[in-house]
Amino acid sequence: MTKTILVIGTFDTKADELAYLIGRIEAQGGAVLAMDVSVLGEAKIPVEVSKHHVAAAVGETIDGLIALGEEGEAFAKMSAGAALLTRRLHEAGRVHGMIALGGTMGTDLALDCAQALPLGVPKYIVSTVAGSPLIAAERMAADVQFILWAGGLYGLNPLCKSSLSQAAGAVLGAAQAVEPPRFDRPMIGMTSLGSSCLKYMKRLHPELTRRGYDIAVFHTTGMGGMAFERLAVEGVFACVMDFSLQEFVNVQHGSLVSAGADRLTGAGRSGTPQLVAPGAADILDLAGWQEIPPRFHDRPFHQHNRLIKNVAFNAEERRALARAMAERLAGAKGPTHFFLPKGGIEEWDRPGEAAHDPEGLAAFADEAERALTGRVGLTTLECHINDAQFCQAVLAKLDEWVAEGIVAAGRVSA
Hints:
The chain is of the alpha/beta class and 414 residues long. It is built from 13 helices and 14 strands. It has helices spanning 15-27, 51-56, 62-68, 71-91, 104-115, 158-177, 200-210, 223-233, 246-252, 266-270, 315-330, 358-371, 388-403, and strands at 4-9, 31-36, 97-102, 123-127, 145-148, 187-192, 214-219, 239-244, 274-279, 283-287, 301-303, 308-312, 336-341, 376-381. Strands 7-6-8-9-13-14 form a six-stranded parallel beta sheet, sandwiched between helices. It has a five-stranded parallel beta sheet with strand order 2-1-3-4-5, with helices on both faces. Strands 10-12-11 form a three-stranded antiparallel beta sheet. Strand 3 (97-102), helix 5 (104-115) and strand 4 (123-127) form a beta-alpha-beta unit. Helix 1 (15-27) packs across helix 6, helix 7 packs parallel to helix 13 and helix 11 (315-330) runs parallel beside helix 12.
């Protein structure tokens, strides 16, 4: 079947670039449905969805948006209309993927459109600010793809054509090759910080598979936690095992390595049963190029690689983090259980390692035991988070919840 790609952009100011992109998609055998999100000018090439359709989708007119006199406000309404129409077009089976291009305005709108599409539908954004810290983690769809639009701010040129032709091939190829997710078995969403810092997934994965679950493990370095939270709030998971809270402590201390301010809320908002542990909650992630804040200059330091480095929290900071975790988990709608391994919470928190701080961990544990009250269950363990005992306790609680009907039983193949 011929795949149709939704092409989104301002067809008044970027008509040449969009026409080139459309031509490259069609030359490869794809079909195109074009959506114009301009406000001031008229589309310079034919489009299937006009700017008037986009404005009308949210009860507005183009003349009314122009009368606002505020470019940002007008484009925000166009973003809402474009996202709504993007969802409707996909639900009607008219498009099989989307691609949008632009600078900050076009990228802002494209992020909303990408979020309107379900996981597994190819969604590409060709942007002059791809990879920029301007794009907050919480704005990104779980499987959105970015392509840096080098030299593409205004007018076609060889650099611009190189980026756009690659983008055309990427989105059409993805639409032709994609295997949309099929949830034939209940899925467990798990978080971890790599496989050297936190190792429990190596023990848990085979045991959960044997119980008939699919397991998706998310790397908690910002984008992983963003995707995890978005899928959790959508109710994709039968249960979550949120054992790496690196991103939560990062956002509490203003690190750029962030999954957004809503970290540790997705499962709670959807009522998804959640098993939680404070993996790697003793260290702050910093971008490798960042200067270490002065208040951390006297702390233990770990240079993981050229992209990321870590400094340790002190006892009082860890007490505050325990209270913040407890407060966030207290708002969960569904069953929540917290595991507190008192022997260490990441691999560098062992005797002789850089982040080993028994007094700091004891302060965290003491505060957590005080703060975790009410509906949040608590299991304290005299072991390290990477020890087999931790995994055994987690599996025992999961089995208990399955027996009680709290978590859906896995589907074991015959």
